[in-house]
Amino acid sequence: MASQTTPTKGQAEKAAWLAKKKAYAPQVKKQPGEVPMLYLHKGSQFHVFMDAISKAAMEQFGHSAKMFETNVKYAPSLPNKALFAFLTDPDDFKAAWTEAIKSYTKEMLNVDTQAPKMYGFVWKYLSVGSVEEIKQHKDFATFSVDKDPVALWKAIVET
């Protein structure tokens, strides 16, 4: 019988096999909502990046993130007085209309204040190579100063 200090032939083979075998590390799955880095090159899976960044931006910025699908800055719709026609009392109508205009104005200001944040949000998911390509874009000087996320997105799509 083999002693416990001396490995048997099977144990020695297993130890040698384990020593040769590379440490297995399972692939880390991306967390839901995690945005991959964009590498602008042939076969870069831009559609995966676009889908992930638009979903993450929608969670963080709301309607402003519609720019990923429409390529235009989101503009909330102006309230329509006809929607408040059911209010027969003039005071109720005036109060509801004033509240609708306040809400519209707040949303417009929100879209404008969110623009630089969204610009930074998109910028942080660009690889070094992608940043260099974007810097070569003809309108880079303008949209980098304005921190215009729509122009940045258009430049990414064009590149």
Q: What topology does this entry show?
A:
Layout: H1 9-20, H2 46-61, H3 67-70, H4 90-123, H5 128-135, H6 140-146, H7 149-158
Helix pairs in contact: 4-7
Structure description:
The chain is mostly helical and 159 residues long. It is built from seven helices and no strands. About 4% of the residues have low confidence.
> Topology as H/E string?
HHHHHHH
Main sheet: strands, sense, barrel: none
Q: Provide the residue-averaged pLDDT.
A: 81
User: In one word, what is the shape?
Assistant: elongated
Number of helices: 7
Determine the structural class based on helices, strands and strand pairing. Answer: mainly alpha
Classify the oligomer. single chain
Low-confidence blocks of residues: 24-29
Kindly provide the radius of gyration, computed on alpha-carbon positions and rounded to a whole number of angstroms.
Answer: 28 Å
Quote the beta fraction.
under 5%
The end-to-end span amounts to 71 Å
Q: How many strands?
A: 0
Helical content band: 55-70%
What key attributes describe this structure?
elongated, 159 residues, 7 helices, mainly alpha, 0% strand
Write a brief structural summary.
With 159 residues, this protein is mainly α.
